Amino acid sequence: MGGIEIRELEAFLVLAEELHFGRAGERLYVSQSRVSQLLRALEGRIGAPLVERTSRRVRLTPLGESFVGSLRPAYDGLRATLDEARAAARAEVGGVLRIGFQGTVDDYLAQAMALFEEECPGCALELTEIPLSDPFGPVRRQEVDCAVVLLPVREEDLVLGPVFSRQPQTLAVSVRHPFAARESVSAEELADCRLIGVGAGGAPGPAPAYWRLAQAPDHTPELRPIPVGPLVNTLQEGLSLTAADRGAMLLCRSTADYHGRRSSIAFVPVDGLPPSELGLIWHRSHVSPTALAFARAVKGVTPVR
């Protein structure tokens, strides 16, 4: 089509009906100058004026009259084809979408789920909490269609979709810990506490070493060693050991806020660490239309990186 944009055709058709740039802009939810810009672009592609505009009125040129008569049926047919495709896509995105998640379902994910249910009313959502020690296994074993996991993700067989929920890291400590009364701690001070880590567990697909080190680093930014604490397979195990003052645990802000009512644990912001981020993943070889639809919903409601 010689690079013609659908928006240019739409603007011309609306202007042909309204014969007024202001009213055309209102219908298109754009400014009057934007309508003029789209029209000039279309006329430039065609090579002749389609509209005559004076201080008193706007009217179509003879070429404009002929063009709108030919364009309208084609444009209406294109819109009908798009509507049919959208309806078919909604019908295809049915059944059940199984989402795995680590930690908690925060406001971002809740909004994404609400948008997904609005866009795909025929699809039910099933949420499954996946262990810290096996973030990628449920997707690989097709126990879930997609999963929300902590970054990083460097697995060749997995697709990393939208990345979101970028938040400062928080240190969970027992209320008896020296850090409990602090307003914040520095990343270098992590060398003064035992950090609870993620274990390999007994799952078929344990978390790789690079991922476990990202959640519980073994050194500070200035390369001071961080003492290794107990290894856990689940978030609840980590929180229980934290409450018992067996070690401290790094958590994202939303998870800390969710568990903030625990009287036995204090949550202290950490300065100097990279923020935590979440990402939506699915398997490269068996992606489902429902997972892709949910990825679009996540992009629609979150500030995605």
Automatic annotation (TrEMBL):
Residues 4-61 form the HTH lysR-type domain. PROSITE patterns: HTH_LYSR. The keyword Hydrolase does not apply. GO terms for cellular component: protein-DNA complex. Pfam families: HTH_1 (PF00126), LysR_substrate (PF03466). GO terms for molecular function: DNA binding; DNA-binding transcription factor activity. Keywords: DNA-binding, Transcription, Transcription regulation. Coiled coil: none annotated. The keyword Transcription applies. PANTHER family: HCA OPERON TRANSCRIPTIONAL ACTIVATOR HCAR, TRANSCRIPTIONAL DUAL REGULATOR HCAR-RELATED. Belongs to the LysR transcriptional regulatory family. This is LysR family transcriptional regulator.
